[in-house]
Amino acid sequence: MADTALGAVFAELLKVVTHVISISVKFKSELEKLKSTLESITPLIQETETLNIAHIIPVQETAKLKDELIKGMELVRKCSEVKCSCFRRVNYADKLVKLNQTIERICRVDMLTQLIRDNKKILMKVEEMGVNMQTELIRDNKKILEQVEEMGVNIQTELIRDNKKILEQVEEIGKKIDRDGGVSIRVKFDGPCLVPDPPEITPGLDAPLKELRTELVKDEGMQVIVVSAPGGVGTTTLVKKQCEDNEIKDKFQENIFFVTVSKTPDVKIIVQRIFQHMKREVPTFQTDEAAINDLERLLKSIGQKAILLVLDDVWSESLVQKFKFNLPNYRILVTSRSVFPHFGSGHKLKPLDDEAAMILFRSSVTPQDGEPYFFDENLASKILRVCKGSPLALTVVGRLLCGKPAAVWQSTVKEWDRGKSIFISGTELLVCLQSSLDALDEEVKECYLDLGSFPHDQRIPITALIDMWMELHEWVEDGLSAITYLHKLSDRCLVNLVIARKNGSDDGCYNDDFIMQHDLLRDLIIHQSMSELVEQTKRLIIDISGNKFPKWWSEQKQNPIHARLLSISTDETFSSRWYELKAPEVEVVVLNLRTNKYTLPNFMGNMGKLKVVIVSNYGFLPAELNNFSLLGSDTVSNLKRIRLEHVSIPSFGIQMNNLQKISLVMCNVGQAFRNSNFQISEAFPNLLEFEIDDCNDLEKLPDGLCDIVSLKKLNIINCHKLSALPEEIGKLVKIEELRLVSCTKLSELPEMVAELSNLKLLDISGCLSISKLTTQVGKLRSLETLRMIGCSSCKLPQSIIKLERLNVVKCDEVTASQWEPYKPYLPRLKVEVLKDDINLKWPRKLHF
Predict the structure, then answer these.
(1) 36 and 154 housed in the same domain
(2) Element containing residue 427 per DSSP (H, E)
(3) Residue 481 — φ and ψ, nearest 5°?
(4) What is the model's pTM?
(5) How many domains does the chain have?
(6) How far is CA 77 from CA 310, 433, 650, in A?
(7) Which uninterrupted H or E stretch holds 332?
(8) CA angle 413, 415, 417 (to 5 degrees)
(9) Is 307 a residue whose pLDDT tops 80?
(10) Which of 143, 350, 368, 451, by CA, is between 20 and 30 Å from 551?
C-alpha cells in the first residue's frame, strides 16, 4: 500500500481542509489559500502516484511530501478545535501559512529538481549504452528543458508526462530500437522479481508458515494456493518469509518470481519483468494474450525444474487464471484481500494473538540502537486491545510511540478511551484499510457500513440484517440480496460468514446463521461516521460508557440530525436517563444494551419515518424492557419490523396497525402472552411474519394469533415447552410458511392444519415427539417443500399421495425409507437425505 499512499493521503488532507472551512470561520483565509494550493497541484499528485504504482518514480522520492501532508492533517484538525485565544490564533495561522509554503516548495521546486536530475541520469545511461537513440530522446529532453525555462504555473504535469515517456522508452530497451542498424541490446536490471526482504521480527507466523510450506513442497498439490486476509494482517510478510525458507529455496532454487500486482495491474509489464529477471530479451507486447503466450513459452523452456510464481496483492481472481499453465512442478502463490473460491478454500491468515502482538509491538517501540525509552505492560496491553491483532496497526502505533515518554503513552490511551479513533494518528493504517472498502460496489459498501451498528466481538444475526436492509435499501426479496451481499463481503475477508445449519438456508431460513465483523474494520466505520458532521451523517453510531453522552448531545446544541440509521450502545452501568434527540429522518433504530432494566428513549416516539426497531441485550439475564408502549403512538405509524432479543416483555398492550413482522429471540414472553387483556390480533392486525425463537417460557401461542388472517409466515423454533398448537390454526388461510423446528414437546399437528390451502413450506424438523402427520395432510395441495429431519418416528398417512405439488422432502435416512412406497404416486417428488443438523439447544448459548 505504500505505492498508493501519497494520493490517498493527499485526498484525505484536501477533504479535511474542505470540511474545516465549512464548519468554522477561524483561519478561513489561510485554509482557503491552502485549499487553492492543493487543488492546483492535484494533477501533479495524480501523475506522481501513477508513476509510483508503475515503479517509475521510487516511493522514497515522495516520502517527504507525504510526511508534510500527514502533519498538515493533524494541524488542520487542531485548528478546528482552537478556542478563542488571540495568541493561539496567530500561532496556528503562522503554521498554516508555513505549511502552504512548504507544500508549494516541495511540489514546485524539490520535485521538479528531482525530475530534471532523473532525466539527466537517463541521458547518461543512454550515452553509455552506445545506442543511436539521440534523435527522439534529445527532442523530448529539449522540450522539457524549454518548459523548465518558461516555468509556467502548471508545468509539472507536462514535465512528468514527458519524463515518463523517456523512462518507458529506456525500460523497454531489449528490443531492436535502432531501426536503421537493427541493433539489439538489453538493459541489465538487478532482479526485478527478487523476493523482498521480510521484516526482521515476524511473530505469530510459525503455524501458517508450516502449513503453507507443507502445501508448497507437495509433489502433487493445488497449482494455485491463495493466502487471504483483510488489509494489514500480514499476508505479504507471510509469503516473503516463506520464500526464505530453506525447503522452499531447495525446491524452487533460482526460479522464484515475486511480483507485486496491486489493484490495477498491467499484464504486459508483469511479463516483461519476468523476462528481465531471467536475463532474456524483453519483447514488446501488443496485447495481454500475446504476453501470456510468450510467458508460457519462457517457463516451458526451463524444463522440468520447479517454478514458484508469487503474485502479491491480487484483487481479481480472473488475473490469476491467466497465469495458469499446464506445466509440471509449476506453482502460483497468491496473496489477496479476497477469497477466490475457484482455487479452493485457500489459507485465511488470522490476526495475531496477544503473545505475538506484544512481541511485535515491543519491537516496534524499540529503537535500533537500544532499549525502548519507555515501556509499560499495562499500557501496552490496552494498546494491543485497540490494535486488534493487526500487525500494521501495531507497527504504526509502535513507531508513533517509539522514543516517547510515559506522558505521551498515557495521553494516547486516554484519548482512545474517550473515543478518539486510532485512524487519526495512523494514516498509513487508514489508507490500507480504506482501500478495501473503496473496492466494494457502492451498494455492497453501503450495506457493509451499516454493520457498525452492532457491537464489538458479537455475532450479528443475518435475520437482523435482513430486517434492517429490507427497509433501508428497499429490497423486494427477504434474504436473497442479503445473502448475496454477505457472501461478497466474506469473499473480501471483511466478515466471517457462519451458516450454522448447512441444510437450512436454501429455503430462506437464516435463524441460526450469523456473521462476525473484524473489529479494526468496525473501528474504521465508526471513524468515518464521526468524521462527518453529526447533523449530516447517514449513520449516527453512538457508544455510551456509563452515562457519559457525547458532548454535542449532552449540551443539547445540535440541530436535527438527518441520519437514516441510529445505533446506540450502552454498558452495564447505564441508567436509561436519556437526553432529547431530534431525529426526524431515522428509519432504523438499533439499541445494544447490557443492563437488567432498560427504558426505551422517549424521543423514539417522535420518529415519524421509523420503520425498524432492533433491541438486543448482551447481558447475562433478560432485560426488563420498559416504555414499549411508545412504539404504538400515532407518530410512529410507519413502523414495520420489530426484533427483540434477550428481553423480558411485561405486556405488549399497544396497537400497531402497520406492523408487518415481529421477531422474539430468547425473550421472556409468557407473562405478556398470558395477559387476559392481550389479544395479539388486536395489537398487530396486519402482521405478515411472526417469529418466536428460543423463548423458553412459551407454553402456548398467544390468544388471537389465529385471527390474524394476513399472516404469511409463522416460525416457532427451539421452544421446548410448547406442547400444542391451537385447533383454530386452520383460520390462517394466507399462511405460506409454517416452521415448527426443534419444538421437542410438540406431540402432534392439529387436524385443522390441513385447511392451510396456501401453505407452500412445512418444517417439523427436530420435533421428536410428533409420531404422525395429520391424516388429512393430503389437503395441502399447495405444499411444495416438506422438511422433517430427525423425525424418524413420524408415520406417514396414506393421504400424502394427494400432495400433487410436493417437489422436495428433506429428511434423515430412516425417514426417507418411509417415502419410497409413495414415490410412484408423486412423480415430481425428490427426497433429499440430509444429516441431522437440527440444533436441539437448551437454550441457545449466549455470546457476550
Answers:
(1) yes
(2) helix 427-438
(3) -65, -40
(4) 0.70
(5) 5
(6) 41, 21, 49
(7) strand 330-336
(8) 70
(9) yes
(10) 451
